[in-house]
TrEMBL record:
Bias kind Polar residues: ranges: 414-425, 476-485
Cofactor: Co(2+)
Keywords: Carbohydrate metabolism, Cell membrane, Cell wall, Cell wall biogenesis/degradation, Chitin degradation, Cobalt, Glycoprotein, GPI-anchor, Hydrolase, Lipoprotein, Membrane, Metal-binding, Polysaccharide degradation, Secreted, Signal
Protein name: chitin deacetylase
Subcellular location: Cell membrane; Secreted, Cell wall
Species the sequence originates in: Malassezia brasiliensis
Any one annotated GO CC term: side of membrane
A Pfam cross-reference name: Polysacc_deac_1
Region (Disordered): 414-485
Domain named NodB homology: residues: 174-369
Membrane topology: Lipid-anchor; GPI-anchor
Protein's GO biological process: cell wall organization; chitin catabolic process; fungal-type cell wall biogenesis; polysaccharide catabolic process
Amino acid sequence: MKLTSVVVSSTVVLASALSVSAHVGRGFAVPEPNAILQARSGHANGRRSRMMARANPSTDAQMAKVEDESQQCKPYGLSNSAELSKAYPKASQIADIVVGDDEGGRLFEELLSSNTIPNIQPKQGVENHMGISDQASNSYNMDQDPDCWWTATGCTKPKSKKFEEDITSCPEPRTWGLTFDDGPNCSHNAFYDYLQQNKLKATLFYIGTNVIDWPLQAQRGLTDGHDICVHTWSHHYMTTLTNAQVFSELYYTMRIIKDVTGVTPRCWRPPFGDVDNRVRAIASFLGLRTIIWDNDTDDWNVKPDGSETTQQIDQNYQNIIKQGNNGTTNDHGVIVLTHELTNSTMGEFIRQYPAIKKAYDHVVPLTACFNATSPYAEDKPTYPTFSDFVGGNIDAQGLPDANSMTVNVKSKMDIQSQKNQTSAGGFSPKSIKQAANGGSSSSGSSNSSSSSAAASSSNSGNGSSGSSDNSASNSQNKGTDGQNGAFSKASVSIASFAASAALSFLLYL
Ligand SMILES: [Zn+2]
């Protein structure tokens, strides 16, 4: 697969168009639509794509073979798409509990009565919650950092043991923890082909609205053997949202991933890294471990969609790459923030991978970093341990068949709070500790028989996974998911959200 076959998708065009009004703070150049259109029309897909254009893909396997990006990104519906869309928040809005969703409503009531949400007011947001207000920044006590607010201080380890610390780095030395945010990108086939050809598996942080828009592309993420985590429904600053909105942003993304792929994730990454103890508590109740990063490529901000030159992004990559063999990672490896957001971000990784491979002993998904062999609520699929993975056994076992996966509406999820996930093989602090102590890594989900998400308010369960302290973990943290600490003004993103909103608008007309 040629690199040039990763081309600008219609997602990017729409995102760029919509980003103009959403833009505040750090600047980026809005690309000339003509330049994008030229890039698209300049793409030669060859005979095979023209043949595929006649087909109407209706399975993961069929869609995975489509090379023409305009066909990949042509809005489509499956047989129950209309029913599915009624069960979810509108793609163009911040999620809230859907009217008539008794189960979601009941679970939210259970969360409220669990008394696990700390009394922290939502931070004041700006620009439709796409940034943090100056007032909220200026009035926050950064010295004491009472909320362990990442956006302010880079805090990832709450002082109170009631909250699990965030995962920030890969414990394995000289190892690159491979993560891609903001997918599924409708035009990711060439990129996923590249990962496949290079025997790479990644941890994919999927946005709910993208999953409902591109279910077949989301299925490919799983059936290719990557592991999937939550990246919220609409990609906003989570600390600015109400409790019900935070709950809904996470809950409905978990459920659409379950409806579309059959698995219930137990990990999530906050957009822009924006998390505090209130948001952590709600995520923990839903069984989700918070995962940040310790190195940021800033790839999302590359021209033409962003404001940095390719050379600057190259340099960001180089700064991380050199840590592979200069001794910096001899103690533990890194978790790197990269995106499948656009042609540029996917292409940039492809260009950098040979150097990454040379500098680091291993490039692995987070399941391997943490021996998270059973990362979902379901017993299957299972993933290789670190030693299995680096020994060449990189494939997940028990994956669904890409030819016959179905999409179900309102799947029942087995939600267990982080504190109730105790057996080895997951992302919870107790699971990771168990795995490190040699606990069985082939066990299924939690030992707990509780099917409820009711979280204990006990103080037990703080992480001991050996990740970093609560200092800002890396000076390079900035970007679409990594606004540098200390409030570098309100955010901007070309927002997959905007793209999804536009595409959903088309889809649901
Ligand atoms: Zn993101």
